[in-house]
User: Fold these one by one.
Assistant:
Number 1:
Amino acid sequence: MTEPAQSRADFEARLRAIGAERYHDRHPFHVRLHGGHCTPDEVRAWVINRWQYQSRIPMKDAAFLSRVTDPDLRRIWRKRIEDHDGGRDEGGGLRRWLALARAVGLNPDYVASSVGVMPATRFAVDAYLRFVRDMPLLDAVAASLTELFAPKIHAQRIEGLLAHYDFADDSSLSYFRTRLTEAPEDVAFGLDYVLTHADTREKQDAAAAALIFKTDVLWAQLDALWHGYVDGHIPPGAWRPGEGMALWTH
């Protein structure tokens, strides 16, 4: 016998509990980063590998939009692409991430090339792209709900980086500050969409599984960083300290 759907409030609580248990703010690498214990090269490795994820966000949103037949949903969702890509010559989360890359001493062109990204990072990010491209729209929206938990990690990151790292200032951390104001609108819409459209227990279970999948994607990237750059097992082809450096450091 199929279980009845959870109430809207109970289902929202279920989704939020996933973040409390599984979001990557709990990962030891972020504890190390925010506490000021990362070496400069560990920070650089994080910036390089996180770029792979950042750069694919507008691509996964474009893949999502290509499947949406409702013009109203497309109008709302395309803001996400604009937030990351910006205008032709200015703005956008991708440019702000590359400003962070320069601030930590990396050549932004090197970072944007993704040449130094670890294989595990590529696999995790590609898995997310395929998920959004191939799974039901409800599941794809549910996977984006890790944004529910992002403001906390952005605030921790700003505080921790400013307290512990010389490169940190308003310019280098502009990506995180901007997301504090950009993300709430996306979160409110995405959460309401999932709570409204997951109207059976089967759909609720699938949406919860999608959110768990996304937390796994984020967690796996940090597992790879720890193994490669904290434990010192850098895989073949991945960035090695000294490569891709800017002509000057902050």
Note: Residues 8-230 form a domain with the Heme Oxygenase; Chain A fold (CATH 1.20.910.10).
Number 2:
Amino acid sequence: MPHILTVTMNPTLDIHSTVPRLLPSSKMRCGHPRYDPGGGGINVARAATRLGVTATAVFTSGGYTGQRVESLLAADPLEACPVPVAEPTRESLVIVDEHSGECYRFVLPGPHLEADEELRCLKVIYENASAASMLVVSGSLPPGCSPGFFGAVSRIAAHHGCLLVVDTNGAALPWVTGAFLVKPSVRELRDLTGAPLPDRAAQVAAARDLIRHHISEVVVVSLGAQGALVVTADEDHDVAGVPVPAGVGTGVGSGDSMVAAIAVALTRGWPIVDAVRYGTAAGAAAMLTPGTEPCRAQDVDRLYGQTSPVSSA
């Protein structure tokens, strides 16, 4: 039975609220807050279980905020494996300006990890990887995490025969090695290459550089509402975005729902381009849920039925 193991080295307690209008130097009365467990891998695990695949979430946990994340996750049908760390888990504040409809996100840096804490995380990942067919590392790395972390995770995935999927910020991408798939945004590719990447050809070339450097076999370039660009060593395909009406969501975690759906589809043996189509549907479906609540399976299936056929260059 397919099983997904996710890793979140820098989880967050997501706090969502509203203000009538965002103003400088003013006391702004917020609406009723909503609290969600957050961070890339946690979001991926929550979405994967909604899509019918069992998941285990390994994540660091420290202080009151870490305990709150753990208690919130108790409501989800996944196996939570918190790894205790000394410093508190970070918080993320998401505020919607009711006047403009704009969403503002304030994200704290997270705890500083000591070397022994990172080693404990790797030990827990190793212990849980034997039961997994897919290992997903998603989200930013906290301060103190070593450049060798992704290499160690790659060796764990190879040892247990897991496909490795990585979705991390652009600054950490050069550390990744031996992944099956990475999912940078165009902005992250720009930051990584230092080039403007003004068109599709430049984006494909930048993605193939990652493949040539053995970072991954497949690069899925996220294009937001426009969909995604799927690049392998010898093929490239456009996957159109899925339009959705304005909903109750802010889009927080939509990229993680996309990764979850791609991972779920791959564990079921789908071709990569169909898996990314499913992923774009899941990312759009996450726009219809409040806070950091994952996509709903019925929304994903409905939107996937509306996706356009994949085109290639």
Note: The longest strand covers residues 12-19.
Number 3:
Amino acid sequence: MTTWTVADDAQLAADAAGRAAGVAVRTITAVPDLAAVAGLLGAIWQRADSPPLSTELLRALATAGSYVAGAYDGDDLVGACVGFFAEPAAGSLHSHIAGVSGAVRGRSVGFALKVHQRAWALARGVGEITWTYDPLVARNAWFNTGKLGAAAVAYLPDHYGGMQDALNAGDETDRLLVRWDLAAPQVVAACRGGAPGAAVPPGAAVALGCSPDGAPVPGRTDAPVLLVAVPRDVEALRRTDPALAARWRSAVRSVLHPVLADGGRITGFDRAGRYVLHQRGAEHTTGERQPWS
């Protein structure tokens, strides 16, 4: 009798996510295909002359058995995701970079890539994937902690140092470290297309709000659960008002960093554009399950 496993369920979810996005996601090993990945990542990060990952490095990662995958719309590469393994004791894959062409934004191609990556990892006995993202980018906060059901567990100030690509230049590279427990109930639900919502408990305090003109407004930090706003579009703000973008960086860091370092946790990101941040010892309840697009 065949035993159904979480890896089998993950593969079904990955197949469904690919169909819903209208793409085929597959791992990549051939040099021409790896060169296309390097070119796509260079275009997304606006570094055509110096892409984030070279063809040679991608070839080495693929040869070593790490994760290099692309999302294809017919013959066209429209998304890519690359990860490598952590130390053996961690039993973890670190997802270093993922990007989707602007031509297919809104089709959930990024979701299809991540759900494929989860299935690939589980099939190899890996139970966790980690990655980092800029805590000021609202759409990524929603995607990671809402749509994927991942947990943001640590704040890393200026994690990469100065970066010269068009998306990060001129700002410090603060990052949130995400851990994705691949067999956790909320992750299983998320990858099937539904996940717990970001519950905002009664009595939650606004630790950082947003003024009518788009500036950060400090609030209370003495409640068990805090709400921490981020700008609606920090990437546009960096172009139009870099000083205000820097103020947001400092304000968000001043709340998230000490609470997470003290053992607090982020339990979601609400539709108002705020992190739901539980201080250490605060009770954590989840909202009702609801469908995500």
Note: Residues 242-261 form the longest helix (20 residues).
Number 4:
Amino acid sequence: MTDQSPNPQAFEARLRQIGAERYHDRHPFHHRLHGGQCTMDEVQAWVINRWYYQSRIPMKDAAFMSRCSDPQLRRIWRSRIEDHDGGEAEGGGIRRWLKLAEGVGLDPDYVASGRGVMPATRFAVDAYVRFVRDEPLIAAMASSLTELFAPAIHGQRIEGLLAHYPFANPETTAYFRHRLTEAPKDVAFTLRWVLDHATSRTDQDAAAAALTFKTEVLWAQLDALWHGYVEGNIPPGAWRPGEGQLR
């Protein structure tokens, strides 16, 4: 039996359908956040836990690059690390996220320490880093294709935060504004690479499974936030309202 695969257009449609059905813009926590219904405790919990994900993105990309024997692929991919880490003293998505943390009343040093991160958040994010480090390159790259769907949610977030929360301003929403241009650049290359290299049914199935896995990583983080801070079931060791505030 031959390993027949559909054409690239059908494969791309399959990947986009995964995002349409599974991307975390559909999660009720995001509807609550963007609609202005979150309490400040819930906003702070989101900022603290999402920080852990943001902080691991450049580590994930460094792990990926360490596996790439093609120097051109490394040259292209390393811009992702630069986008998040910035220069030695300025810029970068991580610093912008800490400006958001400061804007919502949290001590940036507390947030950066990761002490308040929920166990479920840590587990999901660490699983993503391991996936990218250990899985075949096609699957590792395909897992980042959630960026196909990111600009829309960033636009909704900027609009929703500015409309509903006093802390929102150009400085505190800078992370999301930068991702409006960074994510399309990154995903255009990655999508083309995956479409060009996943030419067998086996590889296409692996890429689709990787993208599905990544949507589950993102969804699981929001499920944990909802259970912990909307429903009030904060797990042991996680941040509790009043901790880590600016003095």
Note: The mean pLDDT is 96.
